[in-house]
Sequence to fold (435 residues):
Amino acid sequence: MVYFPDVEKIKYEGPETKNKLAFRYYNPDEVVLGKTMREHLRFAVAYWHTMTADGSDPFGEGTYRRNWHGESPMETAKNRVEAFFELLEKLDVDYFCFHDVDIAPQGDSLEEFLNNLDVITDLIKEKMDETGKKLLWNTANMFSHPRFVNGAATSNNADVYAYAAAQVKKGLEISKKLNGENYVFWGGREGYESLLNTDYALEQDNMARFFKMAVDYAEELDHDVQFLLEPKPKEPMTHQYDYDAATTMAFLHKYNLQDHFKLNLEGNHATLAGHTFEHELRVARTENMLGSMDANHGETMLGWDTDEFPYNVLDITLAMYEVLENDGIAPGGINFDSKLRRTSTDMEDLLLGHIAGMDTFARGLLGAAKLKEDKFFDNIISERYSSFEEGIGKDIVEGNTSLTELAEYAMNNDDIKVPSNHLEYYKSLLNDYLV
Fold:
């Protein structure tokens, strides 16, 4: 069966096109700073929002019209695989991502769930071999089922902890089977509802033990996969342990996991943490911990994870600048953890949403490349910190001074004039780089 019969493969037609099913800025073969857009951007489609979401929200039932529903959960799961790879082909996207429960029904037991995963991943592997599509990352959903009401690796119940371990064990086996390039942990309920009944230290220690067991099992499988942690500050728990990039890196360093993990950072999660996306990317990049990105936009007037397709060119330009400064994010990529609005009900909207996101990132890449070529930020920052390039400032940077020497210097140089930052002017100039 053809699931998108009225859609041809999406092609680049340029900014002037009126064809809504065409790329206006994403030209996969265009070379930017020595690499093609395809190589820079490494786009991936998220299975959960794309294939299993139905348009429901806390206030209303599903609205999406889909043509892949079968007479049983497994028939639907198989149909979704066929439809998904057709979508990947028509979008010309190389990578995909999924949770285990996205692709296969859980059934009535863990054994049935694992068997269902075997059947569906066999089908996925066939489609991968047929199309050349690749698994950017997979993960285990350890937050939706009622058993995870108090978390998974941080649960107060050892039986739940063991069940989560079984899911991750299978997830790593699937990752090896499908040659996954990364494996993600998103702690959807790894946090606390109230400190009144929480053993904070035990939960942190148990989560670290869980991650170490995962690292050990990947080595046992001889599977050289990049592990990723995805920070999020709140929702669903009052406080999530992987609050933001800085908190997550502190955790990794405390438990000596920093050599095995990098960060998968999301735009909407940055917003919920009170940060900009580029802030989170910069914090991770500075510590060589930037691993991958979940691409979406959070509606700032709402206080939850709205996961809109990214459309803000300024935000994405600044994000792509961080990626370029990081010399790329491979083996990570840019996964559209984005869902259609509840009012976007047609199958065609699945393509339109991804086209919009891909074009936004292409525009961001072009603007960021020009910023880098012109040394726009380098020049601003070099001028602002010029006092540390000579004299007493150079001595500070090189560690050739002391508090006593600095105090003596200050006694003779206390008529201090701090130059203006001219921030309004620079923000105005930045607009010139938005494609």
Q: What stands out?
A: The first strand starts at residue 31 and ends at 32. The chain is about 45% helix and 10% strand.
